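User: quick one
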Amino acid sequence: VRALRFHGAGDLRLEELDEVSPPAGWVKLRVACCGICGTDIHEYTNGPLIVPTPDNPHSLTHEALPLTLGHELSGTVVELGDRVSGFVSGDRVAVEPTIACGACAACLSGQINRCPQKGAVGLTGWGGGYADYVTLPESMLHPLPDEVSLEVGALVEPLTVGWHAARLANVGPDSTVLIVGAGPIGLGALAASKALGAKTTVVAARRHGARRTMAHNLGADAVLLSRSEDFSASLADLTRGLGVDVALETSGSQDGLDVALRSVRIGGTLVTLGLWGETANIDLNAIMLREISLIGSRGYANEYPAVIEAIATGATPDVVRMITKRVALSAAIEEGFEELANGPTDQVKILVIP
Amino acid sequence: VRALRFHGAGDLRLEELDEVSPPAGWVKLRVACCGICGTDIHEYTNGPLIVPTPDNPHSLTHEALPLTLGHELSGTVVELGDRVSGFVSGDRVAVEPTIACGACAACLSGQINRCPQKGAVGLTGWGGGYADYVTLPESMLHPLPDEVSLEVGALVEPLTVGWHAARLANVGPDSTVLIVGAGPIGLGALAASKALGAKTTVVAARRHGARRTMAHNLGADAVLLSRSEDFSASLADLTRGLGVDVALETSGSQDGLDVALRSVRIGGTLVTLGLWGETANIDLNAIMLREISLIGSRGYANEYPAVIEAIATGATPDVVRMITKRVALSAAIEEGFEELANGPTDQVKILVIP
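Assistant: Done. Structure below.
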């Protein structure tokens, strides 16, 4: 069986691996689709970053590179290990890739996203989605209802990242929400905010282009260029001069943080969910004088079912639009990774289809 | 009547002003005590900062320097304007000095501390506590029960700053709390945390000295030197290796922020209530990966009665200990301001007693 394995920066290889059968409690999936995430691109261009190296294997999987990438995946059940009771062959599922210790204070309280040892399928071991097959614990699988395609099933992971952030900020029917960044996570946060009933959603994009159009198509009430001179005036118009209740900062950049901080209302909430490459500069007097809450959001926990339900019922906008390209596993490097690695792109989500 | 008026950096003058009678709804107090606050010292050494200047008077008081300083005050009612119904001559009160517009979204929701035009008696007009008399709206006065002396009444203001911060962080009976900074606001935050029932309180002090001893005397379970090599190990011992639920950062310094951020547990809360003189550097990945909430705390609203009650019932530690020096109004500059302005001090709270 084929798998796209990461050996180091710029070194992804499509390799042939032995077939394995699932141990007790585990399930073998035929991978249907796996989205390429910004994290994968960072590994490809600058890695290994999250991917463990042989001198320091992951504490839970004990694996290190080379390993298979791909953590935004859907698939079909093809083989069951012993004592698997919740699935049968042919079931269509989305994979929740979090690997957690199960024993720390965070895990014991159900918040596996906060586990200090947290890893993920497709980054720290146990195979990954850029492969013909993957074998995973039953607990990672979430059934997809008929209304949710396997393609959209591969979007559940990035959508849930945004969902978790919006929930941490208590986004609800009265909320005005600014999403900073119009990449897949920003658009996922937009979709989540819409599904949670946000009254007004505004996206701050860095430039014109297809992602900005996509934000409109996913139902943003406004899409503003964050560097435009009109930005603050336009946002004031949209928020009765108060600023937004919630800013979801997905860019992990100083520009994005500055835009978010100056846009959030007195007493409002700023969620940071991007990964930063540097230390941020922040005016804590602005945080203090306006009593803003700055909250970190990491991954998700216990939220896949709600997101799948929101997609199935149509509570989210039509997220299939986020899929802008589909590539075969054999073409994933050239037509997927290389396009995303070479700077600004009009792609939103590229799916690899083994 | 005498008043200590601020004319600019290094220029405080004890002046003779005309007596005034209170207008309708206002009350004249004979000032009993007024604490010297760090804010006063900043004005004295580097001001005007908050104090408005003649080219830009305060939007609500329309006053500018020279004006009377002093915002931590208690006093006795000596004269009532028309339509004052809640007080009689001789009543002992603590003053809540917030001046707010009463018409903005924050004020209309009762959160006058968040008013964008917020000012304060003793900083932006309406007289101040370093004076024989002050005349103020009835709504600023809170009666002191017999159990609370006028001296302690002058501590209610700084104690309430810490109370508000601790309440924003939901400090309660199960909480472990780190207070960064052992100045009056830090010690007030300690007293508030104790009164709110915190299970464990730890103070991070920058150096040895009287303030550190004071933190012990006010009931801190531990007082650690923030720059000590043992700091992290000692904190781990006190928190079962998890870190604290809540860190209250009162120093407004990069050192203090760093100590607070590395001390707070996964999913914990860091409250920033110091005023910063510069932009902070902050590792937002640490905020994100540990899902920390960083919350700004500004002043207080609707909390004086609870603080006075906590003092009266003995729920707070014996805060009168915080008063380390008493000076007459005529000696306030030389024996009060100058001592605090000249760098590290063993004083905690100096009261001016007109």
